[in-house]
Model the fold of this input.
Amino acid sequence: MTKVINERTTLNNYYNVKSSTLLANDLINLEITDKHRLITFDIKDLYVNIPIQETINITKDMLQRNNDPQTTHQILTLLKLILEQNYFRFQQQFFKPNQGVAMGSPISGLIAEIFLQHNENKHIKQILDTKHIAFYTRYVDDILVIYDSTRLSPQDIHTYINGIHQNIKLKATPEENSAIDFLDLTITRIHNRLQIDIHRKPTATDTTINFQSNHPTEQKIAAYRHHINRMYNLPLDQDKRQREWETIKTMGKNNDVPSQVLHKLHRKLKHKKPRPKPETADREKWTTFTYHSPKIRAITNLFKNTNINIAFKPATTTEKYLRQKTLHTTPVYDRSGVYTISCKTCQKTYVGQTSRMLRTRHQEHIRYIRNNDPKSAYSLHILNQNHEYGPIQDTMKLIKGVEEQTMLLPLEQLYIHTLHNKDELIPEQTPQENNPIYEILQNMDRT
Done:
C-alpha cells in the first residue's frame, strides 16, 4: 500500500531534509546576520497523535488529482482497513488506541508525512513569506528554525507552530552560546555564517561489534565505514576533521579493531570516487546466509560472478539467549525430517525425507516390499538383491529433524552426497548432478 500511494500521489517535500549531510551543506551556504538565532522543536508523540480520518481525507484530495474515482475509492478503502488494524498486546491483553498510527508499521511514516506536509504547506509558507524566519526544515519529528530575533521571540514561534493543529504539540530548545544540536550536527553561529561540527549525545557509548566476535568483517567495520564517510561528507574544517578521526581511532581501539584495519579503511574511503548509478538497473537480488564461521565464504564465493548479493545474519542472537529452550518430548518415530533406513544384509543405507511421521514412512517402505512394488529405491534394493529388511527400531534413524519443509529436499541431497562419498549408500540410490556446495560442506565437515 505504501508503494501504491507513493506512485499515485505527489509529496512535494518542500520543508523536510533527507539527511544531515544535505542539511549541513545547505546551512554553510546560508546567509545570516548577527540578528538571527537558532531554535529546534521536537514533535511530541507524533505517531500516536496522527488524526486518522483527517489524514485519509487529505490523502483522498491528493489521489483525486491524478486518479480516476474508482481507483481512488479502492485505495482509500484498503488504506482505511489497514489503518484500523492498530492493535497491540500488553500483559496478555489486546488494546486498540482511539487515534494514531501503529508504531513500526511500514505505512505509518508515509501517513505522518502526508499529514505534516499538508499542514506545513498551509501554515509555514505564510510565516516564511514575512522573512521573519530565514530557514525552516524538518526531519521526521525534529524541526530546525533560524529566525530574526528583532522581529520574533522564541515564544512567538512556539505559540504559532503549536497552534497549527490541536494534535501536534512541540517541545522547544533554544540555542545556547550561539550553538544548537540538531540530528547528529552541532550548528554554531559565527557572525554572518554557520559552522558545522559532529554532535554525539551524552549517552553515546561508542560501542560497536567487537572485532573478536564471530561476525563477518563487513559487519564489524560497518560503523567505522559510516563514521569515516560522515567525516569526509560533512563540510568540516581541518581541525574538526582531525579531531573526529582521533575519536574514531579511540573507538576502534576500545572495540579491539586492529589499527591497520582502520587505517586501510580510512585510506580506501578517503580516495573513494563516487560511482554513477546506471540509469536502468535491474532489481537487485539478495540471499541470506547464517554466519557460523569464516568457512561459510567457501560457499558464498560461488556467487561472486552472479547477480545475487549476499547478506549475513548472526548465528547467535539475543533472542536465542532469552528464549527458553524446549526439549523434544515427541517420540522420535513420530517426528518428521531426514532419515536413513538400512539393509540388514549388506548394511548399506537409503536416505529419505518426509514431512509426516517417520513410522508412517517406514510402513510405506515395508508395504512396497511386501507387495513386490519397487516404488522406492529402498524397496527396489531389497527386492532385487533378495536382502533382508527389519523392524523400525533396528533399521530406521532420524538424522535431522526438520520443521521448515523447504529444507527437507536440500538436506536430503546433502546426506545422499555424504553417504555416497563414504560408499555407504545403496547402489539403487544415486546423487543428483554434482553440486559444488555439497562438496564444500563435506570438506568443511572433515576439517
